[in-house]
Amino acid sequence: MTNHNITLPTINRVKQRAKKLKIERDISHSEALLLISSEHGFSDWKSFQEELKNNEQAKAPTPQPSIAFVEYDDVEMSDDDYDLLDQEREAELAADIKKRVASNKRQLTKLGIEFSVFEPTITGLKKSILDATQQIRVHFELENFHFYWAQGQGPDYKVMKNAYLLNDNEVTESKASLYRPMTKQGDPRVWFRKLPSYTTPGDQVAIIIKDDETYLINLTTIVIEESLSDSKSHIKSFLDNFVTQHNTIADELLGKLKELAKSPFPALRTGDTAIGFTLEEKLGISANSSKLPDYKGIELKSGRGNKTRTTLFAQVADWSISPCKKSAEILNKYGYEREDDFKLYCTITTQRENTQGLAFIYDQAKDQLQEWYNNTDLVAVWPGALLRKRLKEKHAETFWVEAKSEVVDGVEQFQLLKVTHTKSPILSQLLPLIQSGVVTMDHLIKRNGSNNRVSEKGPLFKINKRDLELLFPQPVIYSLI
């Protein structure tokens, strides 16, 4: 395979050039894309587009490794240890490593698998200590695996659980040690036996939880896409088993829909809600006016919307813990005049301050997304739990059922055709994606010059279409007939 570097053009730039080539050479758009792909050493546009996407996603910064444990008295540090501490990673990871890690994260997300990532350090591997970072703690709580906040301090309260270190050719049994030391803060820690033989400092390692046990995959050394195509791979076996186990309800619902699709059935009411109501009755789902009908947690919708998911959700800050107590206050302090109106239309990211001086900081210790002005004045606060809850509410696991309708002897009949299964987003990845600048937020606050009323269309949390696969599992389409 050709060695492609990270300085390739963006997908948008390539599409602009293809548009120009199409006119200049009187060729089709697809022919122009193929020509440009060939220039960069690719045999087709699909593989070139995938490489361009890899490059874009690899540009997101890698969080610095956590070495907070060295600050506490229970960890003895010699002069040699401090020399090692000076060698810990500060520079960004190599581009090829970042691309592999990003690709592996996409594969896990595609399969609908919740995961967290940690980076072992030189000092940590020597001392057999890992900080249980906020990302790990959130993941453990989402999976009801372990709650550090409910755990006492000291060895008497240490929790041991089974763990496994996965490679393609072997599975190494390990033990996960979950504890809070006898320090002032009792900062949560975790350790996995045999970890030094599985990783090196700087590796990015994913934790996956299944049946109250942890499974580790080294995202730096393993290529999951290749593992999935290897029938003998232990990683493939584990991931296949994981997906099958978590799809039992979806498979049950799919079986019932296929049974219903064997022949047309009459509508049980008329109007726009006929198909939805009839499906509920046929599946034995009791009507519930407070929310969309669901089958054991999976929402049912008839028809497939065309709306893109670039806007993830709208969510105001938690005003009870924010210095600004409403959107109008943020507008008054940081807005600007535009014609007859007073506005604050801007994008907020963790990567830089915008022209209004506003930027995000993710406080890992508190699991809070904080908006700051000039890095000195706190503006507003979003608890991480609030953002994850909103994301889950907005994008529930859904079966989008497509049916054909025809009237026979004056009665509407439905024939089920196909279903698109969209899974819930990977909640554990939301804050890491905000932290790396992949997910941003738009303020859309305006005071109308004619009536002095303040309106807020957001704040809108957004993601680039190309990065949806870092948060959402791949939709699966099933034919019912």
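the 2nd protein, sequnce then structure:
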Amino acid sequence: MSGGEREAWSSRAGFLLATLGCAVGVGNIWRFAYVAGENGGGAFLLVYVACVVLLGIPVMLAEFSLGGRARSDVLAAFGERGPWRAAGALALSAAFLILSYYAVVAGWAAKYLADYASGSLERAAQEDFALRFSAFVSSPAGPIAWQAIFLAATAALVAAGVQRGIERASRLLMPLLAAIVLLLAGYGLSLHGASRGLAFLFAPDWAALARPELYLAAIGQAFFSLGVGMGVLLTYASYAASREHLGGAAVAIAAGDTLFALAAGVAIFPAVFAFGLDPAQGPALAFVTLPQLFALMPGGGWLGLAFFLLLTGAALTSAVSLIEVPVAWLMRRFALSRLAATLWTAFAAFAAGIPSALSPAVLEGVDRLTAELLLPLASIALLAYAGWALPSAVSLAGARLRSPRLARAWLIAVRYVAPAALAALLASSAFA
């Protein structure tokens, strides 16, 4: 669809499920719970929820409001010929760069899913998992091949369109992922010794409230878990109905994202502690610690299959949203069909991701570049545009808030509170 009427979600449920899918990703599964446990458990969770309410939701709503107002892609929302075009370019660049290396990590998950489905990982010796993962990521062919497979699946969904591809996949995958994480959480809670994992997650260390790094960790997690700054929320909101209650949508998605991350933590860490393994985060947790854990557990092959289906599915819903940002721009800017725009973007992301596939150090560097620089800068630019460049009446109309008191509070958060928090996050990264 290169011209004519703009595509749209078929229903409010489709919009909410697709947008929740963009927020729920691998970070919810392998990072959130570990960060919570390492930063005071229940004390961190209280600060995190406050950051989501006071910072994350207002920024989400700002991005939603720009998309709902423009009903176009991220560059058009800021104006391609005006001085604010750099803000749209930052968000577009961040989405593309994240997609390029995210597909590599998602390819690893898809490879492990295939290995559990074939039974090869279930039969692996306990001591082989670290060596197995290291050998896989060090080989040139395997990571590139699985990166290509994952990008092909992502492109196929996006090429099918907003309703027939993205929305249909979200309606199928999000309930499936919720069912898997709840089943795994129930199993984890049934294990003897699971209470140590729950204590790691939830027992409050009130002394941690005196540490500045707790607040920075909570701010960073609140912003980046919700997917702000990449133009994804803006693009998805541009497909929503003009009557959509965007404030309610932001609250629902933030709540769903947080609950999913907590459920993933309950699914993982009680079992990790019950079997005496050390907690970890990131690839070390997903590709070494958990396969070791599954090898020790009755029915571990099925549990491994369920976990990597969860990880791959969460990666897919996020990747679909990332690729849609440049696809929407290419369709409008160059009058390309959706299929052509999707293929160009997928090929470009594949090429850009090859260095990350060949070198974990490059992958980590691109991850840090986007998380610590591009996303905070893009978010600050978005807030400056919504809070200051646009007339207040226009911004408030775009936010569609029904309460004047809430509208005033939102504008204060967008103009002052959220930019200050993001500036503190940028400064902490610069001097880390």
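The longest helix spans residues 85-118. The chain has a mean pLDDT of 93.
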